[in-house]
Amino acid sequence: MKNPTLCAFLNLCLLLSVPSGVLARQQADTSAPPEATGTASPGQQAGAYRTVSLAKLPKNILEDQKEIFLFPKQLARGKHWWPTVAVLVPTAGLLAADPYTAPPFRTTTSFHGFNSAFSGTNTAAIIAAVPAAMYGWGYLRKNTYARETALLAGQAIADGFLLDVAFKSVTGRKQPLAYAGNGPYTDSFFSGSHNPFHSGGFYSLHAAAATSVATVIARRYRNHRWVPYVAYGLAGVISFSRITLSDHFPADVFFGGAMGYVMARFVVLPARD
């Protein structure tokens, strides 16, 4: 294989696919409720009927992490491969395209104004401000549903952050910023910082956090037709900014967005939305 980046990714597929399989919960979510069948999926047992509060948030996050990091056992038993492949195949395709997708954003100044408005600091502040403002509003209005929504969004962010720490520690992926001009952008894995708190890397935490917050709000307020469009639209803009800033490759952003959706929709929200 000529592309070392893609080769490295494929060698790490089992590790990097850990959370993808929780997509399989969709089968349980769309089937009869546990009361009707007398059983509940492991995901439902862990996250479906938990009480949401500030005091219980750490315990809920730990339960999520246990389920996520033990997921390879399910893969080893031959379960949930199709959802995993559905995430990994597009990611692998985007990784193979690194030499072609990165240069246009490294060699243009067209996004200068956009990048200033949606810098890493600004977008992180936006992501944090949305659930914080919702919690404050819910507290002042004595709206329990709004407060729970904010806490669930925070829980999804924390789940994605803890998984991202593991990914970045292992992969040590370079940022596009580490290259000049046309690259070659083909040796990014294991060549950059293994510090999980370093900017860039695989995957994009900004994309994961923005998408997870958007998913929680869009699902819980989906009766307001405009909410999903605004939530996912803003998450898409924030995710795109990670590419235009050359902080991340498109593959990092796609995978981060996928993980953010998975964390929110199938780890945090089952039977609560």
Blueprint (SSEs and pairs):
Layout: H1 4-11, H2 13-16, H3 25-29, H4 34-37, H5 42-47, H6 57-69, H7 72-76, H8 81-96, H9 98-101, H10 103-106, H11 112-117, H12 120-140, H13 144-171, H14 205-220, H15 226-244, H16 250-268
Short summary of the structure?
The protein has 273 residues and is mainly alpha-helical.
Describe it for me?
The protein is built from 16 helices and no strands. It has 273 residues and is mostly helical. It has a single domain, classed as Vanadium-containing Chloroperoxidase, domain 1, CATH 1.20.144.
Using the 3D structure, state the CATH architecture: Up-down Bundle
Helicity level: 55-70%
- What are the segments in which pLDDT stays under 50 over at least 5 consecutive residues? 14-48
- One letter per element, helices H and strands E, the order comes to HHHHHHHHHHHHHHHH
**For the CA atoms, what is the radius of gyration?**
19 Å
In the CATH hierarchy, the third-tier topology is known as Vanadium-containing Chloroperoxidase, domain 1
- Taken as a percent bin, the fraction of beta residues is under 5%
Judging from the principal axes of the Cα atoms, what is the shape? globular
The largest sheet, given as strand count, sense and whether it forms a barrel, is: none
Average of pLDDT: 81
Extended strand count = 0
Number of domains: 1
Protein structure class: mainly alpha
